[in-house]
Amino acid sequence: YYNTLTGFKYIGQLMTELQGKKYFIGGGEESYGYLIGDLVRDKDAVVSSAFISEMTAYYKDKGASLYNALLDMYVEYGLYKEDLVSLTKKGKTGAEEIKAMMVKFRENPPATLGGSKVSILKDYELGQETDLSTGKVTKLDYPTSDVLQFITEDGSIVSARPSGTEPKIKFYCSVNAPLANRADFAKVNEELGQKIKAVMTDLQA
Question: Check: CATH 2.60.40 for 78-203?
């Protein structure tokens, strides 16, 4: 798989660069846009809806449901929960506050998020990835963007960026935990929701 900056223009660009070299299966972004196949190089609700319908029919023929199939995937690979948390900071002072927050995150990244040590800091404006344990710095090959990404030892990922259109700073949170069986889904899902709240508390400390 390949990571890109947010936006289907970056996914489409990658498809063009790899055309004839790789077979494109699908792409998606955090706002639930999906693209299946390479005919349309933008988010495509029509094709995505068709695939969801086909999957639903497939599992119905097997006497199962799409929901239970999803739970089985969580049991096999782990339960992942994502959330977008936006903090609104209005006016001139708000813009200055958002800028100050990004400077603080760059110069003094949080030591822990949600109880797990932050091990990697990716700075897409500077184009570098820093191992916070060793200090080793490696280059990131992405377009320049005012985005910071924190990765913790337990696999949580938090990306921070100022909104380009609103007086907000946005935090894209991804946390995960093992799921032993379907019956534990509600409990583990709630625990992950609480973990995201803990992450946001740490970021605003």
Answer: no
